[in-house]
Hints:
By secondary structure, this protein is of the alpha/beta class. It has 13 helices and 18 strands. The strands form six sheets. A five-stranded mixed beta sheet has the order 13-12-14-11-15, sandwiched between helices. It has a three-stranded parallel beta sheet with strand order 1-18-2.
Amino acid sequence: MYGARARASLRGWGGVGAMAVLCALALAFVLLLPRTQTAPPEAGPAGQRAATGSQVRADTCQDAEAQTRTLAPSGADGPTTEAIEARTGAKRKLIVGVDQNSYRWGYRNPNMEGAELEGFDIDLVHRIAQDILGDPDAVQFKAIPTSQRITAIQDGRVDMVVRTMTITCDRLSQVAFSAPYFKTGQQVLAPKSSTITGYDGSLAHKKVCTAAGSTAYTKLDADRKAGALPASTDISTTVPNQLDCLVRLQLGEVDAVVTDGALAASQAAQDPTVELKGKAFTTEYYGVAMKKDATDLVRRVNRVLVDYRAHGWQASYDTWLSATLGKDSAASEPPAPRYLRTS
Length: 343
């Protein structure tokens, strides 16, 4: 049965198997970037809530609050943005870590000439490049596995990561984040014929797949230890890229997938034999991730997001996500950020 499902789903725009191959071929080599410094503080704009202190303090951080707390928007140049702008010739590009196999978020469409990357995250990348370099196409995309998003930033392989990356306290201790640009939550994806009903007792004695380093795995691990998830639930299957979980599900190697509902909905659109089970059981926000000391770049991206939320976000949602998440985008809109004032 699962073999038939796998064959049935690998059609049309190339199937998840073809996209997984493309992802592997597109992994880029390391490119060290100039070291960044901290830019001077700037107060938040009028009308926005403000908080004082760093973006995260390990002793007080709570995910619900930290996900909306960020540096105030600014168009001022600093060491990081100046280094990007100083690139010349073919290297004058914004280097961004993205996904290339998440349908409607960041994926290569083989039906388009050149199999260009497209999707909701890709639209945002083009807007940021337009603001910093004056050219929306001045981007060097690097395919980054889910498990390598943070190290790619820390190692200087990319200027930023725009890859359905949830803002969390743990990640804020390692990288800096922009204001949130999308709201989602963890959900269960399973075959329509499955007896699984959601994130509940029906997962007992079931094998669940998650991406390594994902918030999904962190949640399952914590809940199983706390007794909120059946102890018999097998969460040992983790993969480098989230899409690999769908392949495992199609091959019958796992019983369910847990991932962001926004991504799960797109995967259900790829394979009509699977569906979302139950409601979202967390609330999470995606942000653009950058180096911790790239203060000027964080502020610059936040300025872009202010304009993008007003002019561009809805059009991108309508183009890429309305077919899978519904025409009403209100449930996906992130809250207003809490801009920090540093001293």
